[in-house]
Design goal:
Length: 370
Amino acid sequence: MENNNVVKKTYLYKKHIALGSKMVTYSGFIMPLQYKSSIVEHMHVRNHSGIFDISHMGKIFLKGKDSKKIIQFLTTNDINHIKIGQAQYNCMVNHKGGIIDDLVIYKISETEFLLIVNAINTEKNKKWINHYIHIKKYKNINIIDYSNDYSILSVQGPRSLDLIQNLTNISLNMINFYHFKIGKFSGIENLLISRTGYTGSKGVEIIIPNEYVEIVWDNILKISNNIIPCGIASRDSLRLEMGYRLYGNDISDDITPIEAGLSWIIKFDKEFIAKEILKKQKIEGVQKKLLSFIVNKTGKIPRSGYPIVLCNNYIIGNVTSGGFSPILKKGIGLGYVNKNKLTKNSSIYILIRNEKIPISKVKLPFINNP
């Protein structure tokens, strides 16, 4: 039995140490936080290109004629809407409509699917899938957990595709957003290269057998000084600028996709767990609502857990994700508030060390697509 208390290392751990990264524990892995400066890394990805080690992500493979059936029942989006060679953002929900995990599903064939899931949820996801395979009595399905066998590199930034093009015979610019190709990269055959990412900038993610990941990492960094290694601190600020939700902060088993502002990944023309609950929320509205905001006072940065209050200090919610936007040069954040306590003209604040700081509601993303 796997010991979930053991902190793991990715296959690039020694590379990160050699490059001088500050290491931290994240999602059960020792991960690079930053190499020199998270703001420098953030801006380099927005203007040039950066490479991230995201090998901690879970990689679950479903194979067999019943694979599509179980995915359709357990998730809110509709994989019938995507073709072979396409990926889809999706979420699995529990009986109350809460988000078990948000994930990206790759359609390898009509009977083969790769699920890239959050590292902290890999075991939970497998148990949930197996539970319903048993309940539904599906026989033609095989689950393989490749999480410990494969690494993932994410190369992101407006120059990323052009800079790494010489490493592959696949025309990277011809891969559409949320599509993928399987082919040769950096001399390694049969790698999955997808036009996906968590930064909002142009880029690809490459799934690589562990034994080859050091070679691919080194070859990418040798290509150009305009590709720099980046850590999870800049990855977090990059995703926050785009308003991407982070599991464990902005979404969880107690938050539905409707509450999280993710109703666009719910397709009510198919059957799935908690469909009626989510349909009711869609029609009647929800009390808990995701708020995206900019801090109106220079130098004040919101952090997870900070109270969101009205002018009379009445607490209406809490910040779930917050930080400094290097592009806007302001504090930005996400949080949940009691919708019934708000009016159109309500003045909203966050409390930072008992100081009431005014914030402004804004629509996501915080910045235009880079």
